[in-house]
Amino acid sequence: MTNLKRPWTKYPYFEEDTSADVVLARMGPDTDARLAQVMTSAVRHLHAFVKEVRPTHAEWLTAIKFLTETGHMCTDWRQEYILLSDTLGVTMLIDAINHSHGDGATENTILGPFYVENPPHRPNGFNICLDGKGEPLSIRGRVLDTDGNPVAGATVDAWQTNDEGFYDVQQKGIQPDMNLRGVFTTDDAGAYWFQTAKPRYYPIPFDGPVGQLLRAMKRGPNRAAHIHFIVKAPGYEDVITHVFPPDCPYLEMDAVFGVKETLIGDFRKVDGGWALDWDFTLARAA
Amino acid sequence: MTNLKRPWTKYPYFEEDTSADVVLARMGPDTDARLAQVMTSAVRHLHAFVKEVRPTHAEWLTAIKFLTETGHMCTDWRQEYILLSDTLGVTMLIDAINHSHGDGATENTILGPFYVENPPHRPNGFNICLDGKGEPLSIRGRVLDTDGNPVAGATVDAWQTNDEGFYDVQQKGIQPDMNLRGVFTTDDAGAYWFQTAKPRYYPIPFDGPVGQLLRAMKRGPNRAAHIHFIVKAPGYEDVITHVFPPDCPYLEMDAVFGVKETLIGDFRKVDGGWALDWDFTLARAA
Residue A170 pLDDT more than 60? Predict the structure, then answer.
């Protein structure tokens, strides 16, 4: 074999041992600093992963097909890559990184895909279960600051599934529009209260590549039952959170890792249904 | 806030510090062992990457959109995820992992997307440049074993671009079918020889999300000029490789990291064109 040694090489040629360095050496010096930081970390971890698992060519092609099919599954109304992020715990990690108050404020959890813009404002005491189905649930509580003082005029924006595990937007024509959604405003004592129905667990979309991966990992598709809340008040950090009933069989196996111990509520059986006292604590805006 | 401590928890709830462990704890004990190994490494590196770069919610959404658009760009004739793998050096790394002979055999490099099944078998001496365009190139060499003995009856399957950087399949109706493709068989002395044209560098598809990422990293799209080869003989490992002319301006900046020092040939200027002596060394099959 006749080779020509090239003494004028500026960029290193590919070598297995230095593979990530070879790739990163190509980034131009005027690359945006944040992009360079992200890609440096991404390429280093990607190459380290490949060297750890040493995929065969067929395994590499399986990964290419999985990523391609996950993209093809995405439409205006289905986001399979967010589902992948959710089920691998990445969405919760992004949430934790961006919302760690560490000061006694109510913990965040993920927003999820079922929030609807411009939900109806309702007076305290209103029953947001517009079709009267399911087990009635009374919720009341206060919005507090981290010193325990009431926050008046805070908004408590709630949304949830019905007793069969469906959001209104998943059952158009079956559930009334804006069923089980409503925004409440706290009174001078920081209190809010409303009527609803007990939510039920439900499966994430399980018919795509992410569902196949979960099945292969012997994992289930169910999200633990929960009520979503966004709580806001001027001068405070917003909190996006859930409350979970403690009797849901999927608390420990929530498919998207949304459950936190501090977000499990003491749902009490009462005459004619259930009751929950549930306070929120807001951190002052930075 | 009223919480209910759950002493019966089997699976841990999500915590930032232990996030990868929480996700991996969910894998069922009867998960395929290889899948469990791959996902364990993937989830650990993915979470470590997120913790290193601490993406904002907007940056996370940018990543989701990039992955989605890369999937949407894939069709039967365009594989943007393979292009992403190529340009991040992963394809070359997979190749290195699966083809490191370390015994003096000719080095592998990537197959690329332009191989065509059932190329024409040609007699030694045949000119595969069917339209006579470009600078003529004579190639001759031998196929050897790692002890330097000739391998008779080996096949040398070659394909390449024309002098404008296009493969025949990219210029149907402009180039003749099977232009610059041919399979040669070594004689009793292990020799092969054929006529062709000098290949030119060419850009990888640059109009999709991968092209955008390369531009953002201030990287160019060009592959260094090369001739592809697959060399096979009974009892030996196949080798998928290239030879590169030493005067190509993109040798050091090949967009897919395909260049290796040992694969740069000594192309000599001769009367009426170019000449190359190029031997292949095959490792015995395991």
Answer: yes
Transcribe B222-278 into DSSP letters. EEPP-EEEEEE-TTB--EEEEEB-TT-TTGGG-TT----GGGBB--EEETTEEEEE-
Handedness of CA A218, A221, A223, A224 (dihedral sign): negative
| C-beta atoms surrounding A209 within 10 Å | 21
B241 phi-psi bin (left φ>0, alpha ψ -120 to 50, beta other): beta
- Residues with Cβ < 8 Å from B78, sequence gap 6 or more? B205, B208
- ipTM, two decimals: 0.91
Residue B2 has pLDDT above 90, yes or no: no
Q: In whole angstroms, give the CA distance from residue A203 to residue A220.
A: 8
In this predicted structure, what is the pLDDT of residue A9?
55
CA B129 to chain centre: 24
B28 part of contact set with chain A, CB < 8 Å: yes
pTM of the predicted model as reported, rounded to 2 decimal places: 0.91
How many percent of chain A have pLDDT more than 90?
A: 90
Closest by CA to A194, choosing from A136, A147, A281, A128, is A128
Other C-beta atoms within 10 Å of A151: how many?
20
Assess whether pLDDT exceeds 60 at residue B4. no
Identity of residue A87: T
Rounded distance between C-alpha atoms, residue B38 and residue A234, angstroms: 47
Of A50, A73, A131, nearest to B64 (Cα)? A73
Q: What is the pLDDT of residues A221-273, one digit of tens each?
A: 999 999 999 999 999 999 999 999 999 999 999 999 999 999 999 999 999 99
Max alpha carbon distance in chain B (Å)?
91
Q: Please give the structure tokens belonging to residue B231.
A: 């060399």
Architecture field, domain A84-282: Sandwich (2.60)
Compute the distance between CA of residue A44 and CA of residue B188 in angstroms, rounded to an integer.
48
- CATH class of the B100-205+220-282 domain in this structure: mainly beta
Quote the CA–CA distance of A170 and A116 in Å, as a whole number: 12
And the tokens for A273? Answer: 């249904």
Chain A residues with CB inside 8 Å of B26's CB? 217, 219, 253
Instruction: Provide the pLDDT for residue B229.
Output: 98
Assess contact for A223 and A258: CB atoms under 8 A: yes
State mean pLDDT over A159-185. 96
Q: Does the pLDDT value for residue B28 go beyond 60?
A: yes
A25 at B interface, C-beta within 8 A: no
From chain A residues 61-80, the ones with a CB under 8 A of any chain B CB are 64, 67-72, 74, 79
Both tokens of residue A206? Answer: 């399980």
B19 contacts in chain A (CB < 8 Å): 89, 92-93, 96
- Residue B168 is classified by DSSP as G
What is d(CA A100, CA A240) in angstroms, rounded to the nearest whole number?
12
Which B-chain residues 169-208 have CB contacts (< 8 A) with chain A?
none
Q: Angle at CA A113, nearest 5°, toward A255 and B70?
A: 90
